[in-house]
Structure formats: C-alpha cells, structure tokens
Amino acid sequence: MSRVFAKAYDPKTVEGRIYRAWERSGFFNPDRLPRRSALSEAKGPSASKPFTIIMPPPNANGALHIGHAVFVTLQDIMIRFWRMRGRKALWLPGADHAGFETQVVFDKKLEKEGRSRADVPRDQLYQEMLAFTLENKKVMEAQLRKLGASCDWSRNKFTLDPDIVKIVTDTFVKLYQDGLLYRGERIVNWCVKHQTTLSDLEIKYEERQDPLYYITYGPLTLATVRPETKFGDTAVAVHPRDKRYRQYIGKDIEIETLIGPAKIKVITDAAVDPKFGTGVIKVTPAHDPADFEIGRRHNLEVRSVIGKDGRLNEKTGPYAGLKVMEARKKVAEDMEKRGLLVKVEPGYTHNVAVCYKCGELVEPLVMPQWFLKMTEPPKPGTNSHDRTKLSHRRSLRDMAVEAVKSGKIRIIPKRYEKVFFHWMANLRDWNISRQIVWGIRTPAWFRGDELYVGRTAPKGSGWIQDLDVLDTWFSSGQWPYATLMASRSNQPPATSNQQTKTKNQKLKTDFDTFYPTDVMETGYDILFFWVARMIMLGLYATGKVPFRTVYLHGLVRDKDRQKMSKSKGNVIDPLGVAELYGTDAVRMALVIGNTAGNDIIISEEKIRGYRNFVNKLWNIQRFITLKVAPRLRSGINIAHSREDKLRLAELAALVKLVTTDIEHFRFHHAAEALYHYVWHTFADKIIESAKPRLASGVLKDRLAARSLLVEIHSTLLKLLHPFMPFITEELWADLRAAKAANAAKGTKGLLMVEPWPHG
Fold this sequence. Notes:
The chain is an alpha/beta fold. About 40% of the residues lie in helices and about 20% in strands. It has a domain at about 195-370: Alpha-Beta Complex (Isoleucyl-tRNA Synthetase, domain 2), CATH 3.90.740.10. α17 (about 605-625) runs parallel beside α19, α19 packs antiparallel against α20 (about 700-720) and α20 runs antiparallel to α21.
C-alpha cells in the first residue's frame, strides 16, 4: 500500500512538509528554475521571458486577514501557472511599515500598557515601534507560507530597508529639484485625535444632520453650520450675478461680533451658491477648504482661530480653550443673547469629513506642509533624470492618464478605467507630510529661514532635519521599481573573463531584468490610494510603466453580503479556517465565484464544501494508486478505443480552456471548470465506466483503461496545482512513486516545476 494512503488526508501533517520541500528546492527563485523554456524558441534559463509580480506589501503591524488570503491566492495562481509554463517567474515579497496605520495600532498597545506616545522620547518610540513591527513581520511571513505563497524569500524587502529608504529619499530630492515639490502654507485635513495630517484619500465623508444658524452680519444675514469659526472670517461673499446684494459688493460693512465691532468686505465669487441659505456666505480661509480657495483668489487674510488640539485659540477672547463643539454651542447661545442670531434650522443634512481610522471629525487647518504637484509639469531647465529623459515635460497626472488611455497599462475590469480617469481629472496637489514618528524622515533641513533638501545635511552647523515623515503612500508608491533597484540577481558569479569584461560596469540589478512588472493585483478600494500613485511615480522615476496590467479584486463579504468587521462578529480568520479545513479548501473557496472588480462572498460553509472536494481528489487517487498505476507496464503499445480518444480530446479541450482562462485572468472560470470536470465527468463518468474494463479478461482493454485514467489524473493534478498546490503536490509524489515514473529533467520530482500540459 502507498505511504500516502495509510490513512486519510490530513493537511496538518502535509502542508508544512510540502512547503519546506518547495523552499529547499530553491525554485521560488527564478534564477534557479530548471533549464527549460516552454514558451521561447531558444533554450536555457536566459531565454525564458520573465513574469513578474511585486507583492502588495501587507502592513507589518498585525495578523493577516481574509483580504490578504485573496491576494495571496490570486497572485500565487499566476506565479505557479507561468512558472510551469517555463517563464522566469518572480514573485517578490515584502512588508510595509504602514506609518500612520502602525502608529494607530501602537498607540493602542501603549494605552493598554498605561503609557502614552507623548511620554516616550522620539528616538525610543521609534525603536520600540521598529521592534514591534519586525516581530509582527516574522509572524506575517509565516502566515504567508501557511497560505502557500510561492514567493522568492531571498528577495524579501521591507519599506524601511536602508536601500529602499535611499531610493525613496532620492526621489523626493529629484522631485524638489524638478520643481514638483514645495513646502507651503496650505489647508490640510487634520486629525485631532491622532495629531497628524491626512491626505484627501484618508478621509471619509459621512452624511450628518446639524443645526443651520442664520446670523446677522451688519445689514446682511447669512447661514452657517459653524458659527464658532466666525472669529476667523476675513470676508463675506455673494455670487457675482446675485442682484439682491449688488449695493454691498466691494464695500466694507460694519458688523457686531462677540468680541467687539469690526469691518468686513463684501466680495463676489462664482463658488457661492445663491440658493444656499440667504445666498451670502462667510469666508473663513483658515478653516474651510472652499473658503481657502476663495481666499487665495481674492488675496484674503488667513486668520487661524483653532489649534492643533482642536480648541479655539487666544484670538477668540473668552472662548479660548473650548473644544470646537463646546464653542459652537456657547457661541450660538451668546449670539442669541446679543440679538445676532436670527433663527436656527435644525436637521440640516450635509456631508462632513471624518478620519478613516477613528471616525472623528477632521479639522481643516492651515499649516506648512510638503506638497507634490500633480497637474503641473517639471520646471524648465531641469535635467535630474537621466533615466527618464523628461523632454516631454508632462505632469504626473498627464503621464498616468496617457499610460492607461494608450493601453500601456490596462485595468481589469475595464469599467474601472472610467473611475480612474474621473479621479485623475479632479486631482489636487498631494500632501505628503505626516506629523508622526514612524516612517521615513523628510530629507529636508532647516536653519532659521534657510531650507535645504538633500539626503544628508549640508555643510555647516545649526541645520535641523524636518521632524515630519513621508506619507506611506509616497514611499509605497515607489515599491515596484524601488524593490527591483534594491535587489540584485541571484545568478551564479561570473567567470574570470566575464569579471574582467564587466569590471567597470554597473552591477546589474533585478530592475534590468524584471521591470516593468507584468501584473499588479490588488483591491479596487486602493486604486486611488496606491495604484495611481505607483503609475505616476513609476513613470516619473523610470520613464516606464511600473506594470502592464492592473487586476482588481473586490472586498470580502459574508454570506449576507455584509462587510466583515469584528463588531459584527462575522470575521473569518483565514489561518483559522485553513487549520480546520486545509489551505487548499480555503483557496478554492476564495477563487470560485470571485470575479474581477466584484465583492467576494465567503463563509465557513463554503470553505467546508471545498474540503469535500479535496477529499474527492484524495479518494480518486486512492483508487488509481491501488487499482491502476501499479499495474502499468512500460514498453507496451496502448490501443485506445474510440471512446477513449473522445475522452482525451475532451481533456485537451479542458487544458486549452483552463490555460486561456488563466492567461486572461478568468481564474474563477478555470477553477469552476476543473471542479465540475473532476467531480462530475472524471469521477462520476470516466472512472465508473472504466471499472468493468479494469476487471476485463482482455489485457489490451485493461491497459487502455489504466492508461486513460492515469493520463487524465496526471493532467488534472497539473491543472489544479496553481489553485490547490498542497494536495496536488502530495498526490503527484505518490503517483510518481506508484508508477515508478521519472520526473521532468531538473525538477527534483516536484509538481510545481513540471511542464504545463499542452491542449
């Protein structure tokens, strides 16, 4: 009896052993793959065309969730498929320090320990967070292995690796030299709780109902939701064509405030909605994004009256020190006492900005920040990019839009191209400053009013480095080219002649071989957060697109189509269910029914169902190993019947279908086709019809039946391997042993590098 089938399949005893065998083989490394090339006319590993995926780096601040299992499964399918097709397949793994996200997690850790970030010296805090992150990174990498990720661990990168940091900071410097980076007093999204700015993409808008206050401003009446910011008003505005207020336009009006009389100018601006309230608005450039833009157009004073702590400042007189909502209530009460409050309309519905992490209201504040120009070309006369040759002098936005419009980058599903273009059309300059400790320090130095931008401080004393760190999306936006520039080929050392020849040449990096990458597979929810930034920064830094295809998967939802969350109690731990049902069952459950750009429905019941499919494969092999394979003899001509030939043609069609589906990113369709063929065609029909032939007294019938079953089963194991790598690898080893078969040359008997079947 075969060793595999001494007892029922137990993934707990198999998966770890199989993964260790994969790692020992060295075949995760594309430089060590067997010497064959199924797709090229030339022979040898050098002729094999690369296929490259750069792993979206999971945040190294906690355990993997079910969404991570989705990307692991889909990317591993592609890598295993193209590896078996003879491509020089590289899947480069990594982890993200995840600046703001990690600091939020670490703050909670400190809180549990009875400590606060404010009480820990900056350098000590950084080192504690580094130790915390590196420990989590180890756990996360073990989990990726558990999920079957066949990535090249010898090339594993971290966003805080010194070579990555160097590339990121060099890009910052080059952007500054090209006039695309500037430091300016601009209105930003400020999270009071986390004490940092947020990009426009890190805020959410929630529909809320608030009172609408009608306030007397001299001869005018205006409506506002925020009476507490009136101390920062530097104008009132009306629409240019609003005839109601023509007599006041361009004049100063006298108003009564809660801290004394004042004069304020009436201006016109097309941004004013004549139908809102009375058609008159107060302009507070320091505390409203729209008002800030109005203020820039009219050169208005920017008067800040709210501090970073979310409290009114000394410019507000007796209201100083009050939190925003406290001040709002108090100001409204006092205005009513003074006869300045005309009326209050309750239940005014509007959208408000909140922090995407804590859900607290975001406070618009004006402060100095670093901004990246998205819609302006580099300044004339700069030549800092030898690699890019930016003679076209196009903006970051225009380069990215052209790359997608021209087809240099395709987005799957295609409907997301419209979403991409819409977002790009409404770009604003990108705030890349963050007021946190954890991350890459901005390579900028101050000495009084002097500013120097460079990786290291300039000569002379008194220079102090900017305390801000770079937005994580700025550093991870450089991930595809930075990882490959920082990674060197693992090819064997050159001969002495080669060494002489290349003595004065630049050492070859993976960038030269594997860039541009083939596929960026990620969730549709970060198309703007990350994908668009990678396209822009990749084109800027290298002159090439960072990837040729963007494949977007959806969010994972429960069987009731509810978003998974701890509060709802519907979260599925991918490692937990993998422990119960096996990784292969989890992977199949995540693939079947998973179409590009659509949300994924998953449940424990679904995973349990695919465990049954794993067991079905096991039982099929049990039958073939015990009843068929040992009785095969070499050197005998097999005379297949007409029915056998039809079955083999049917198998060839299946091979062609699965191959085409994977090539065209229809993973769900390929997996479903294999599932139904194995269960309903192979098991229910072909094997059952073969049983009488296996018992036949005619030798040629027995041999033909045995050959047919083994041929189909062997092919199915290859086709299923990208989807279900563990059980197929285990069954392949047993089948080879039962047949006393030889593996393909150089494969060490592993299915993962066996040639893909031909249709």
